[in-house]
Amino acid sequence: MIRIAGLAGIVWLLASGAFAQQADRPLLTGEKAFGDWKADRPGMRRLIRPRDLPSPRIGRLASNAPGLGDRPEGAMPIVPPGFSAELVASGIDNPRVVRVAPNGDLFVADSEANRIRVYRLAAGSAKPAEKSIFAEGLSQPYGIAFYPPGDKPQWIYVANSDSVVRFAYRDGDLEASGEPETIVEKIPASHHWTRDIAFSPDGKTLYLSVGSGSNVGEDMGARPKGGLEEWARSQPLGAAWGSEAGRADVLAFDPDGQNRRMVATGLRNCSGMTVQPATGALWCVVNERDELGDNVPFEYATAVKDGAFYGWPWYYIGSNEDPRHKGARPDLAGKVTVPDVLMQAHSAPLNIAFYEGGNFPADYKGDAFVALHGSWNRNVRSGYKVVRLKFKDGKPTGEYEDFATGFVISDDEVWGRPVGVAVAKDGALILTEDGNGTIWRITYGG
């Protein structure tokens, strides 16, 4: 991993800070919304619709993985006027999902270090008053959830790449008091390994996202055992088979791991899940497929409908057939659910959090924040930022705007790759990024 802090990066960051002061950006639609990192700044607004999809270009592989540079001195996320970002912690191996305990403690999945960290911040501050390793010896932990939902959870659930485990928990615990109990086992873990979890508001259902084992089902085989017609009759709509059986979907269980069932299929990699407070609906942010061009297909965030099929690997963004599977599943045409909010292709959304805090301006209430980890299969970079999804009366408008930018240093180098977003008990937004292993606290006002 190459880490270089350059003067050009610092100059660019300062210039971007000036741009961030410009408000009321015009709404970008159609091809104008397919920009790159140079156009990104707080307040930049985009609205992408299904009709905006360009034609696919088979085998269009732009391998443009970022070089990781050291965070330039003084560099921090660029946020809208009136907001400020403060560093909570740095030097973490691989901070991914962050979730907030009812007492306000921050639980962070340090995935590649196979541990869960805890940070207890001083009141009204980004400075940790206490920090600890809650548990270690895990297997690429990612999703974290408290059970039962509410003020007095008794368990912390952790989604490993290949299992879901839980630890006994009492309010304020900074270290696990015992060994983990396995709740769900034998989850396929190759390729997409980020497993997120969430509980339904009533606590009766544990949701688990399982990403695909490939880009577009290359190894699953042309037909399932017993034939396609029999498979379609006996399985949920759009369910994959072979090496992709039980993947690219959202599963549901009872809290004890029993009564496994499939909620939705065709979600290539739902890397982040949450429940919308206003409606109780489960939401996913999804990484779509590669090698069809710079702007095909769009990434997305969507409410997950029970029994719905979202297209992978045969279709995308509705009934747009993937040319690599041409004619393979005509029975599914017209049965693909179109996602709610479309985002730039290859932005890599990894986590989502709805804002119900009291620190930000009132018009943020009910909106959602999504962390975009950033592209590799695109000629010019997209992603590497946190965006705000706009909602009205609990429903998405389809529009999203840049909220936190400034993580890209140049065409060849980035210092930050946003992953986790969560709303702290005091209404601050907590952000993790795994490029330089930092955690940030974003607040509004003085």
Task: Explain what this protein looks like in three dimensions.
- The protein has 446 residues and is mostly beta strands.
- It has a single domain, classed as Neuraminidase (6 Propeller), CATH 2.120.10.30.
- 4% of the residues lie in helices and 34% in strands.
- Strand 25 and strand 26 (395-404) form a beta hairpin.
- The radius of gyration is 21 Å and the shape is globular.
- Residues 1-23 have low confidence and may be disordered.
Helix/strand-derived class? mainly beta
The poorly predicted ranges are 1-23
CATH class: Mainly Beta
| CATH level-two architecture | 6 Propeller
Indicate the percent of residues in helices.
Answer: under 10%
Multimerization state: single chain
End-to-end Cα distance, whole Å, is 38 Å
Describe the protein's topology.
Blueprint: H1 7-19, E1 27-29, E2 45-47, E3 67-68, E4 83-89, E5 95-100, E6 106-110, E7 115-121, E8 128-136, E9 144-147, E10 155-159, E11 164-168, E12 181-184, E13 197-199, E14 206-210, H2 228-234, E15 249-253, E16 261-265, E17 270-275, E18 282-286, E19 299-303, E20 315-316, E21 320-321, E22 341-343, E23 349-354, E24 368-372, E25 385-392, E26 395-404, E27 408-410, E28 413-414, E29 418-423, E30 429-433, E31 438-444
Parallel strand pairs: 1-2, 3-28
Antiparallel strand pairs: 2-26, 4-31, 5-6, 6-7, 7-8, 9-10, 10-11, 11-12, 13-14, 14-15, 15-16, 17-18, 18-19, 19-22, 20-21, 23-24, 24-25, 25-26, 27-28, 29-30, 30-31
